[in-house]
Amino acid sequence: MRRPFRSLIVAAAAAALVLPLCTVTAANATPPGLSDADRSALRNQAPIDLAVGSAVWGRQQLMDYDPGAPTEYQQVLGAQFSSVTPENDMKWDAIHPAPDVYDFSSADALVAYARANHQQVRGHTLLWHSQNPAWVTEASATWTCDDARAVLEDHIRTVVGHFKGEIYEWDVANEIFQDTWDAGGVRLRTDRNPFLKACADDPVALLVDAFRWAHEADPDAVLFLNDYNAEGVNAKTDAYYSLAQEMLAAGAPLGGFGAQGHLSLLYGFDTSLQANFERFAALGLQVAVTEADVRIPLLEGETGPTPRQVATQAERYDAMLQACLNVTACSSFTVWGFPDANSWVPGVFPGEGWATILEDDYSPKPAFDAMLASLRDATPGVSPRR
Ligand code: XIL
After folding, report:
1. Which residue of 143, 249, 300, 378 is surrounded by the most CB atoms within 10 Å?
2. What is the mean pLDDT of residues 7-36?
3. Domain coverage including residue 317
4. Is the CB of 260 under 6 A from ligand 1?
5. In a domain? residue 382
6. Residue 14 has pLDDT above 70, yes or no
7. Residues 6+ apart with CB under 8 A from 123
8. Residue 343 near ligand 1, beta carbon < 6 Å
């Protein structure tokens, strides 16, 4: 299944720096100016109005970046992707470790890397119930809504302001709805999100203001709601759809809806993803697949997945990409890191793994090939979506 890949990386990275990314106009023609290396790069095959990204942990992978001597990982990241998302570097615990302390060091390294590699940056995330620093968790026990608002406003204005002009899409609010299986069912996380909890009397007013503060700090960034289990039309996305309407009616600068795309072969695939994207697009929003990975349950004693699992994984990645390609409002498709050695999956989902699109030696898995083929079919260099 493997084909030479690493030898192409350096050439592709170099080509990405000197070639305009879109030089071809005829759909389905062989791009005359593109070498084999370019044809092996997701970013060069994507429609011009679709960013193809990956999560990256700047603190672990980019602090030592030297444009003249990139690591192999850094070469692949630059050659393949036109967008990067900080997997952890812009979360509260990383960027705001103490009440009066902001630490932009690793996020700045990520932004500098992205600039050097002609990539866009997706900001992630400003309001979430997880990965908050201890000081937030402790202080929030006694917060009034005004206290919570003051802390959140300072954070959003400071962080979004720091990166003003550098970020094309911000996940302002992440995972703010519970799931059907949580106590109380699908409703805003006024139990676990410390900010929504303090403002539980009117959480939507807080959300509207959070988006407003972000917009004032960087008017060019498109501001997203983002969640898991938000691919298909379901109870959770119904709640998001209502919330989006309510926020827009209140004048919130809400600009996008993101489906994370964390899938597992333990479950089926909800083919209503495209219909879900279409209904949010009809509200005037952009949509995006923001954190795609497809976990595979690995049998005990087996070293890898079965051929059937490998094929199904490729189908799932491709199905998510197809839904995005088919909806012109889908502005970015991001995978949640690569290769498997860097993936969050093994640490968090025992018994599951092999979730990313590249092998640990950076050779492409069938999921990568399927995505590359779909991007190439959709457009050799120029988007037919416009
Ligand atoms: C994950 C990261 O990948 C891990 O490194 C970290 O330990 C926990 O968070 N949904 C999100 C992401 O919005 O921020 C999460 O990222 C994965 C689930």
Report:
1. 378
2. 38
3. 6-377
4. yes
5. no
6. no
7. 85, 86, 90, 160, 163, 167, 169, 170, 171, 221
8. no
